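name: query_chain
kind: protein
chains: 1
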Amino acid sequence: MQAIHDLDPALAITRMRSMDEILRVSVAPKRASMLLFSVFAGMALVMAAIGVFGVMSYTVNLRAREMGIRMALGARAREVRRLVLRQGLLQAGIGVGIGVLGSLWLTRVMTCVSAVLLATAAIACYVPARRATRVDPLVVLRTE
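structure:
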């Protein structure tokens, strides 16, 4: 500030800031908006995972007798797990495919988001699939 005053004593300098500070202040609203958007996106992802988990758990409960029969007839746990995972991931894959086709005009970020959603669906499907393999065929067949 003294150097500027030495060059031109009539120049009034009221507030001097660094370029970093100016940049930080100028992007603060956008940064806050992106943080809020990220929080809501995370909440939506959690709700989607809960929804997929709920639907797949309901499906496994409805098909418990079928899975018990399959296991009684010799199906391995891996095959039953694959059956449930395939059903859940097929539905998630169709949804992601429609989303990707509908968002081709957006940036590559949507592809990354789709991959995260597909991975979330896979994890949400895996728990009911694993539970389906732990069904005791005798218990299921005796309930009805």
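note: The chain has a mean pLDDT of 83.
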